[in-house]
Amino acid sequence: MSSTAASNNPHDAEKRLAIGFLNWAHAIDHFVLGIYPTVVIGLEVVYRRPYSELIALATAMFVAFGVFSLPAGWLADRWSRRNMMVAFYIGCGVALGAAAFAPNLPALAAALFGLGLFAAIYHPVGMAMLIEISQARGRTLAFNGVCGNLGVALAAGVTGILASWFGWRAAFVVPGVLCIATGSPICGWWRATLTRSRRARKPPRSRCRRAPRSACSCCSS
Known about the structure:
The chain has 221 residues and is mainly α. It has 11 helices and no strands.
């Protein structure tokens, strides 16, 4: 009995860790989308443009966030959900870095579009993974929703603090570094778990390979 429980512990730990990564991704997903609408207030002074003109740059980001969820889900079903989630973390981090160091407004708009494109990965891919791992448990899905709402709630406050203390570019750099720092170990961890699961599913090699087929009881049966 105890040996059975011990054998299940590693699998349960992997499930909890995977759910934790997905919850963190949901928080990041909504957080990064709230950075520019907060930063744009200070950009009026930097670029000497009206708020109405600057906030329009976010349109491409939100359109990409909605539209690209369709190809993201399609690609995850035909390629790999895990790899798509790694692309979510790394892609959002790179897009945030591009926004931070954008030399002009067209480059900033392109970076925001890329951010919306990679942020679109989470809902069709991450939610599908969460439902599969948790077997659609209501409590797990509810907690995931709380994480997403926390990302929305913290976006304005954290972005405002970073922008006021270190400048508006830091408001993009810090979450970008967090995204890449999270995505890199996730990639290695998921590859390791996938390798272990493949080895566990692999049938054991027959020990009677060289024995005549008629003389081997396991082959003749």
